[in-house]
Design a protein that fits this description.
The termini are close together. By secondary structure, the chain is α/β, with parallel strands linked by helices. A hairpin with a 2-residue loop joins β8 and β9. It is 31% helix and 26% strand. Strands 18, 19, 20, 21 and 22 form a five-stranded mixed β-sheet that branches. Strands 23-24-1-25 form a four-stranded mixed β-sheet, with helices on one face. Strands 2-15-17-16 form a four-stranded mixed β-sheet. The radius of gyration is 21 Å and the shape is elongated. It is built from 14 helices and 25 strands. Bound molecules: uridine-diphosphate-N-acetylglucosamine. The site of uridine-diphosphate-N-acetylglucosamine (UD1) has 20 residues, from α1, α5 and α6.
């Protein structure tokens, strides 16, 4: 198993190129199941979750040909419709194949994803919506068994809660359904928007893209032609490196970034004292000498993302005063707190709220990554902690950060990947 050894650096300097978004790539890869011919995807991040989903598609019979920064996926050879436990257990987002396989083949089996480090994460809303569209769903021996005796039919779906992969799943199912599906309380995340835009350019009319009410006009089973496209930049990776600039008080420039997707993150960093130079696809952070305390509530896009909560918690340990961070989306997403406390952070947890008393000098030690974004928070803490920080279990980090240590090394960080 790999781990990261980090020593503090005076300041970082230079440019970091942002990779394609993991959370956009996953539904876009699943979407290729709806295509008549091979689909070329570029700006794909080199992360484990993407390889996992492509492996799942390959197991179903698809052909995946990799090139520099992308893949050509041909799903016309799919001859299997069962997504097995061995893959689904490693990545919950495998559930994204349920909607498109069911829509194309009329039957599908997907292993239930099970529990997760950050909370229960049920998929009841995905299943309820598919049933409304005419699917018959049984749960048997840990598998979702779904079939569509009379095909999928458009209907009115109202999500009780905003769900990102739930919205993507139902949009993909609705793309091949008969008639019009409307989704109320749809997710508005940029990753969902890109999925809808590509489907809309591929012959599936979708109205209301980027709003909470989507209207999808299905093709009644006809497969679609999807032209080559590039995945949008990863806003969470970008946000993480902006936090690296702020916490190390370094001027860093991010390239290949979409500033429009980072509104809430930039606004919180501004409240904490940083300023920015923003161009079309670059952002330079000008950090302040003194970091100010902040109040953050995680919510659905366009509000502050839960996937940036851990990184801001690490940053808040260096702010002067009391910061309050409230997690509204997941019930157990504070596993990084106890690791940051071991590094000397003064944090009190009360239910869904963390109160951070800053500023504290952190001390390097051995810490354990508990989930993807918690891992990057520990790396950020390691960049400014006294002495040596060893971040273990970085397989979490490798699921979603493309070349993290080489990107940080290129701007001067003292970070090494080693074997346990
Ligand atoms: C996606 C992102 C993840 C991010 C999260 C919230 C991907 C691959 N992952 O996860 O990085 O942290 O959005 O922005 O894009 N819920 C239910 N029933 C359901 C579905 C969801 O109760 O059927 C609840 C969840 O438990 C959670 C909330 O709804 O409390 C939001 O979850 P959801 O948006 O579905 O998260 P994911 O799509 O799994």
């Amino acid at each position: 198993m790999d781990y990261l050894k980090i020593h503090p650096t005076a300041a970082l300097e230079g440019k970091i190129n942002i990779s394609g978004a993991k959370n956009a790539s996953l539904p876009l890869i699943a979407m290729t199941i709806l295509a008549k011919e091979a689909v070329k995807i570029t700006n794909l991040p080199n992360v484990v979750d993407i390889k996992t989903l492509l492996k799942l598609l390959a197991n179903l019979g698809a052909n995946c040909d990799f090139f520099d920064d992308g893949v050509l996926v041909n799903t016309s050879s799919i001859n299997e419709t069962k997504a097995t436990y061995d893959i689904v257990k490693t990545m919950r987002a495998s559930i994204l194949v349920l909607g498109p396989i069911l829509a194309r083949f009329g039957h599908c089996e997907v292993s239930l994803p099970g529990g997760c480090a950050i909370g229960q994460r049920p998929i009841d809303l995905h299943l309820k919506a598919l049933e409304q569209m005419g699917a018959k769903i049984d749960i048997k021996a840990g598998y979702i068994e779904a079939s569509t005796p009379n095909g999928l039919k458009g209907c009115e779906i109202i999500f009780d809660k905003i769900t990102v992969t739930g919205t993507a799943n139902i949009v993909m199912a609705a793309a091949l359904a008969k008639g019009v599906t409307s989704i109320t309380n749809a997710a508005r995340e940029p990753e969902v928007v890109q999925l809808c835009e590509i489907l809309n350019n591929s012959g599936v009319t979708i109205k209301g893209i980027g709003t909470a009410i989507l209207e999808i006009h299905g093709t009644a089973g006809e497969l679609i032609n999807i032209k080559e496209f590039a995945v949008i930049p990863d806003r969470i990776e970008a946000g993480t490196y902006l936090c690296a600039g702020a916490i190390t008080k370094s001027e860093l420039t991010l390239t290949n970034v979409e500033p429009k997707h980072l509104g809430a993150v930039l606004s919180k960093l501004e409240e904490m004292g940083s300023s920015f130079t923003i161009a079309k696809d670059t952002i330079t952070i000008h950090p302040s000498d003194e970091i100010k305390a902040v109040k953050i509530i995680t919510q659905e896009y366009p509000a502050f993302p839960t996937d940036m909560q851990a990184q801001f918690l690490a940053l808040a340990t260096q702010a002067n005063g009391v910061s309050i961070i409230e997690e509204k989306l997941f019930e157990n997403r504070f596993m990084h707190v106890s690791e940051l406390q071991r590094m000397g952070a003064d944090i009190t947890l009360n239910g869904h709220t963390a109160t951070v008393n800053g500023k504290t000098q952190l001390s390097g030690t051995d810490v354990m990554a508990t989930d993807l974004r918690a891992s990057s928070a520990l790396v950020l803490a390691g960049l400014i902690a006294n002495g040596e920080t060893n971040v273990h279990r970085i397989y979490h980090l490798d699921r979603g950060y493309d070349s993290l240590e080489s990107k940080l090394k290129n701007v001067g960080a003292k970070i090494q990947r080693l074997k346990e």
